[in-house]
Amino acid sequence: MKLIALGLEGSANKLGVGLVEHDTETDSVRILANIRHTHLTPPGTGFLPRDTAAHHREYVLPVIEEALRVANVEVQDIDVICFTKGPGMGAPLVSVAIVSRTLSLLWNKPLVGVNHCVGHIEMGREITGAQDPVVLYVSGGNTQVIAYSERRYRIFGETLDIAVGNCLDRFARVLNLPNDPSPGYNIEQAAKLGKKFIELPYTVKGMDVSFSGILSYIEMIAQDQLGRKECTPEDLCFSLQEIVFAMLVEITERAMAHIGSQEVLIVGGVGCNLRLQEMMAQMVKQRDGKVFATDERFCIDNGIMIAHAGLLAFRTGFTTPLEESNCTQRFRTDEVYVAWRD
């Protein structure tokens, strides 16, 4: 039997709509459509919840229509509607959840609320074929080292303050780098031109990391040294990447040693960064292991990861009643009961 899910993602500035088909007999997955529209702001600025929510409300229907057209799917072909329940920014989450509820009622389709983090993990596992990896989940809103055990994705380590993606994005604002296609991408490109390594704080606390002090310190260096031409913006981008990625590699390796895994799966928007993938690969090679990562189609927030994770849950009999389809900005990865895995 073939099942089709419509997935809607809108937890931050990316509005994503995806359609995924599961063949329950062959256990195969087919991506039918992956459409995304990004709320962009001027260089040196971030995105506000109310403006992001307004963007999602403006574009969600055209994006849904485009996804249905690309997938060549009719409304009657859809078996379930999946949406991001959390975590994320409140107003954008609510704007997309309202549309999901409305379509569920209009089309008479069941609803499944999906944990954003679990969506990233399951999409990464499906695309790469990783079996039982240590997961490094790195994005603008989350930084976690995760491994699966007894029907839960257990968090072994995480950020104590801001996410690594938020650290990079906020420093991009200091340097007035463009937000198109993303501040993190532009930091990555600038870092390739850096020639001078500047020492920064290295803040690993057991299995946890902290980025806010590093950000404050490098902002101070930028204000002090750039004007005197003691370093370049590219040097600062290079140094920041090297430090924060080394911290992430360290706690990931410790998790690998603890659970005896030979696999690392990198998911989330920062997972697109080729330097992070390279540093992780160097560590994993020393342990005779393997690194799995995806490109921007799947790393960056998208609707297909919500559709895929939601359909996995739906196949176990899970649905979200309308009265429980509220959103939450705090929805931890380990709160989800992973009924679809052994």
What is the alpha-carbon Rg in Å? 20 Å
Rounded average pLDDT: 97
Secondary-structure element order, N to C: EEEHEHEHEEEHHEEHHEHEHH
How are the strands of the largest sheet arranged?
3-2-1-4-5
What separation lies between the terminal Cα atoms? 22 Å
Query: How many helical elements?
Result: 10
% residues in beta strands: 15-25%
Please count the beta strands (DSSP E, at least 2 residues each).
Answer: 12
- Major sheet, described briefly? 5 strands, mixed
Q: Unreliable runs, pLDDT <50, ≥5 residues?
A: none
**How does the helix and strand content classify structurally?**
alpha/beta
Helix content: 40-55%
CA-based shape: globular
Task: Please summarize what this structure is.
The protein has ten helices and twelve strands. It has 342 residues and is α/β, with parallel strands linked by helices. The radius of gyration is 20 Å and the shape is globular.
What tags apply to this protein structure?
single chain; 342 residues; alpha/beta; 5-stranded mixed β-sheet; 12 strands
What does this structure look like?
With 342 residues, the protein is α/β, with parallel strands linked by helices. 42% of the residues lie in helices and 21% in strands. It has 10 helices and 12 strands. Strands 3-2-1-4-5 form a 5-stranded mixed sheet, sandwiched between helices. Strand 4, helix 2 and strand 5 form a beta-alpha-beta unit.
